[in-house]
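Handout for the seminar on molecular recognition.
Each group receives one record of this type.
Step one: identify the two inputs.
Step two: read the structure output and locate the region that could contact 4'-deoxy-4'-aminopyridoxal-5'-phosphate.
Step three: write two sentences on what you found, then compare them with the reference statements printed after the record.
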Amino acid sequence: MQVNDISRTKSAELYEKAKTYFPGGVNSPVRAFRSVYGTPLFIEKGDGSHLWDADGNEFIDFCGSWGPLILGHNHAAVRENVMRVMQKGMSFGAPTALENELAELILSNNRFIEKLRFVSSGTEAVMSAIRLARGYTKRDKILKFEGCYHGHTDSLLVKAGSGLVTFGETSSAGVPKPFADETVVIALNDEEALQKAFEDFSGQIAAVIIEPVPANNGLLLQTKDYLNYLRELCTLNGTLLIFDEVISGFRVGFEGAAGYYDIKPDIITYGKIIGGGLPVGAYGASAEIMDHISPVGSVYQAGTLSGNPVAMAAGIAQISELLQPGFYDKLNAKTADFVSDIRSHVAEKGYELEVFTIGSIFWFAFTNQVSITRADQIDPESMLKFKAMHRELINRGIYFGPSGYEVGFISAAHTQEDLERTKTAIFDSLEIVFSN
Ligand code: PMP
């Protein structure tokens, strides 16, 4: 059934104004809706699994602020803890007991790190982890994988995913060549390329950084064997393995991908979920590695708002909910059922579409390949189908992130009714996408 486009009058007015203030009218590129239909939606409020835009349109949200909102929008426990703490002041630039509280919740439930440092974003966490690895190993080169996005740190904006792949230019201008030259880039899931990189740059690679669940260039699920092989080669070569768990941390399980695959990296970076929707990131490692950080070690890293009490309060409340028995089992089972119903429908209709999933993450790939493990296996043309689906879904009150290279998230707030409504909207949308 065809439906009309929703009204975007107020969003369009706001967007016109925003364009006079911000480049492209936004403060982060993918928000500009440039690879999907229509002007960006300006959001007015969120509650549970639902969002409302400036025109009063209501949506069931599968973007979840790009991952942090694993409990849904405006969760009462998070909101109340934030408000309680805010009443005592918002920033001191001095230690507070709240930092200990959040660290204790994380470290006593995570077998893979012994100490951590809070920062204010995923980018900052990764930037600091890289510096730590370089300071620790006294080497300069970093190895990353094509399609993995690690925030907008200079040396990692090389063949990256997220907004870069969305806009078709996978490396950024403004990165000096000597910086980029310190970054070695290879394809994911390619043991030979990995081996060769370690041979070519023998004794020079400080760290390998990987999203163990690559989720910024579609969902490029790796095999456990490959990740084990990577671990092995890093150990053999005296190279630190960094798991960038800004998306997968506290998402595919409390211990993230390290726990999911039972592989111990040397450094882990976190963001998104750890802050309960406020700006928090963290990096952690063994006490021995972390003690290379200032003021005890010689690797400098600091932050005026690091460990900010309001942000810690949000993190404490959210992380406490995640530690409730059965939290992940329930969330992951709900996602698996949702994906399985969509797959059955797609198979029945014979659509060229695969839905990839892990934990409560899913990705729609307009392809008939049953496995996609590398960025170059995605046909950019397939994004036209995503664009068409995105428009149909928005018009049916379903909000997916505005890029076909980004994944969707299910939260604890999604009800069975939400998911039934969403499936119907997806089935109706796909009928239109595949009939054109
Ligand atoms: N690493 C990964 C794996 C990410 O997905 C992101 C953000 N999507 C970042 C780092 C950067 O985090 P932030 O946007 O908070 O700086």
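Reference statements: The pocket of 4'-deoxy-4'-aminopyridoxal-5'-phosphate is lined by residues 66, 121-123, 126, 149-151, 162, 211, 216, 244, 246-247, 271 (CB under 6 Å). The longest helix spans residues 327-349.
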